[in-house]
Amino acid sequence: MPTSVHLPVTARPALRVSRSASGADVVVAALIGAEGSATAKIVGLTPRAVKEAETSLGTDLASLAIRMGGSPRPGSTAVLPWKSGSLILVGAGETAPADEDLRQAAGWGVRAAAELAGDKGVKVAIDMGIGSAEGVRIAAEGALLGAYHISRITESECVDPIAEVTIVSQARGAKPELRKAEIMADAVFLARDWINTPANLLYPESFATSATEELGDIANLSVDVLDEKALASGGYGGLLAVGKGSNRKPRLVRADYHPEGASTTLALVGKGITFDSGGLNIKTTDGMYTMKCDMGGAAAVLAAIKAIARLELPIHVIGYGCMAENMPSGKAWRPSDVVTIHGGRTVENSNSDAEGRIVMADGLARSTEDNPDMVVDIATLTGACMVALGTSWAGLMTSSTEAADTLLDASEAAGENFWELPITDEVREGLHSDIADTKSSGSRAGGAMGAAAFLQGFVSPQADWAHLDIAGPAFNESKAHDYIPLGGTGFGVRTLVHLAANLAS
Ligand code: BES
Ligand code: MN
Ligand code: ZN
């Protein structure tokens, strides 16, 4: 048994549902209407509470909010006095928010409430006219995810700005939905914490140990870790080659959730490069700085499988975390080196900075031995995908329209954006090698699609396969917004959980 690790952890606020907002320090309601208009309306709050507040303030709340800089524009916030605390009116668009708009409005509200927190955490009530149990779940997700902040590694302890979240609703059957939101938020927090942990603390061995501890005690879920010796005897030439330049040795984590009676098998494969320096094809200063996030795919897979198991979804799910650190050194593998991937296919290294697909090849090849009905891989794989789709959309690549539809349905329910890119003959042909079965990369043109074409070579043609490139949305370098924090976003966790739920039903 490996020794245990202590990595930074961000606490999730407590969550409850209530018919009223009483007891909260901060109440969040929605402001809707045509942009900039005087006809803005409040959604949420009881008529009696509004009347009391308006009498004591001597004006109507909606127009006061507009005068204080508020607006129905999504993301705008106005803070008003409210009983013994504050009222935050969050812009939520033209109509009462639902689905992703509601999730985002709740996130914006909690984010604004956190700014009001002093030296102790605030209790926040989300009161947005939520009328269904599903609405409670969605608002709770947005609020909890919006409460996340990077766990600082400092001398003194810091307080969590949000102590408690209450969703105000009269809806029946809301309690079980709360638990679903908690499980989902816990998984996204876990992925974010792993991603934000610097690579001196989170490296293949400690990542694998942390995953074993996090997933260890859940019913029907078991975790196996292959260390460098086991990788060598199993012929995992990709993980070993990428890991060679580093003193931190690679790991392959296999998490198997197998509930009784499950008839469908889903395999998930995640890129777990704990730091991507580029290897001998070393990155630039700016390009390297955020590369602790390069294990975001493995984080998404392992966190998702934890949620899937805690939700007891009736489906067999096997998750792989392909973990290595990509470093330059006298031991590093070189451009033009040829290595053998698990299962026997050979790869010529065109560029040591195209390391993710190499470790993923081992994971995908291993996953075919599970005879899955569907295989989904997820990776911060290419800068090209970020160039194509920006930082809030991920790429989806597959040769199966059914797999594309299934994933797009799941991502829609999750509130995560994916856009399909083709895998063209042009990029397939670009992978020709004169010496090995394939080169690792081809031309810069269509780089995201070329990576997908490479990966496809390691998947069994029988399985329905899709590739998710999350290079853009995995890590937020600019500014926190709605329920997306700075740093690791946990992108992909929620889509994978919804995918498993949809395949199970
Ligand atoms: N981890 C990077 C991709 C990446 C870039 C993720 C920016 C997140 C933000 C990946 O390993 C990489 O370096 N890809 C190369 C591939 C190329 C050498 C074929 C790239 O995109 O430049
Ligand atoms: Mn790279
Ligand atoms: Zn990488």
UniProtKB/TrEMBL annotation:
Keywords: Aminopeptidase, Hydrolase, Protease. The keyword Protease applies. It comes from the Bacteria. This is Cytosol aminopeptidase.
